[in-house]
Amino acid sequence: MFNLLKSDIYRLVHGKMLWVAAIVLVALSVLAAGMMHWVSSPEFLRMTATSFEMTVNVSDGVTGGAGVLGEGDAAAANASAEAAAAVSASGRGLSLDELDTLGAAEAAGSAESEEDSVRDDETASDSAFASSELWDLVADNPEALSDADFEGVSRDMRTLASPADMLGDMAVSGGALAMVVSLVTALFLAQDFSMRFARNLVMDRRGRVRYYGEKLVLVGLLAAFYLAVAALAGAASFAAAGFTYAAASPLGDLALFLGLAWLLAFAYGCTTAVIVWASRSAGAGVAWALVVSSGIAGLLLGQVLLLLGQGEPWIGALEPWMLASCMQNVGNHASTLLATPAAAPLTMAPLAVQVLIVGTAAVALCVVLTFGPLWKRDL
C-alpha cells in the first residue's frame, strides 16, 4: 500500500492536475478578497451613496419636492439599509436573528449613539450597524456626509470576525473546497482505467484491499492539502487587501473547525471515488463533483425536504442532517461550533457533534461500498 501511495503522490506532484487545482483555489481567494476590498472601499460607498441620493432627488421632484421620503422611497431606503447590513455581516458569519437584533437596535438608538457607532466601533456586529446607518444618513441629509464617515464605515466593514469565519465563508460553506477535492479525485482515479494502470497491478484479494485502501488514503491527503492551500491563500489575500480581525480564533476552536472541514471534504472526495469506481468514467465523477460536491444538489434537495416538511415535520427534520447542510453550517458557524446547538434530536449536543456524526457516517458508507460491491468488480 505504501509503495502505491508513493507512486500516486509522485504522479500528482510531477503532473499538472494537482497544481492547476491549487491555482484555482488561490485565484478564488484573491478574487473574493478583491471583491470585498472594492465593495468596502470608501470610493464604492460614496459612489453608491451618490446613486442613492440621485434616486431620492428624482423621486422628490416627481412628487412635488415635498422634501421628505414617500412611502415607496422609505421602503427603498429601508431595503438598502438592510441589504448593506447583510453584505457587511456576510463576511462575519452573522445569523438572521443577529441581523434582526441589529435592526431593532438601530431603530431604538439616538442619532448621537448611531454616529458614534459609525465612527468608533470596529466589531463585526457594529460594522453591520454602521453600514446601515450610512444609508439612513444618505436618505436624511446626503450633504452632511464627510470623507471620514465613509472611511469609518469602510474600516468597520474590513474588520472580519475571526480567521476561521473568513475561511468558512470563503471556501467551506460555498462548496469550493469540496468541489476542488472531488474534481481532482475524479480525474486522477479515472486515469487508472483510461491509462490501464490498474491492469498492471496484482489484483488478488490482498491486492484489491491495498489498491482501494491506498486510494482512500490519497483522497484524505488531497483534502488536507487543498484545505491548507485555501487557508493560506485566504489569509494572505485578505491581509494584502487590508482586512483585519475583531478577534483571533482560539487554537482549539480553529483546530476543531479545520478538522471538521477536512472530514467533510474527505467525505465528498470518497463519494466521488465511489462514483468513479462504479462507472469507470471520469465524466461521471466530474459531473458528481460539479453538481453534488459543490453543494448545488444539496441546496435543491434541502429546499424540497423543507417544503415537504410543512406537511410531514419528520421530513423537514432530515434537512440539517444532509452532508451539504453540515458543510454550510460548518462554514457559517466556524468559530461557534461548540456553542451552536445541533439539530433535533441532538439539540442538547453542539453542532460539532452533529457534523462529526454525519461526516463519519458518509465516509463509513463509502468504505462499505468500496470493500463490498465494488471490491468484487473486475478491474
TrEMBL record:
Annotated transmembrane regions: 18-39, 170-195, 216-248, 254-278, 285-308, 351-375
Signal peptide location: none
Keyword annotations from UniProtKB, A to Z: Membrane, Transmembrane, Transmembrane helix
Protein name: ABC transporter permease
Organism: Adlercreutzia hattorii
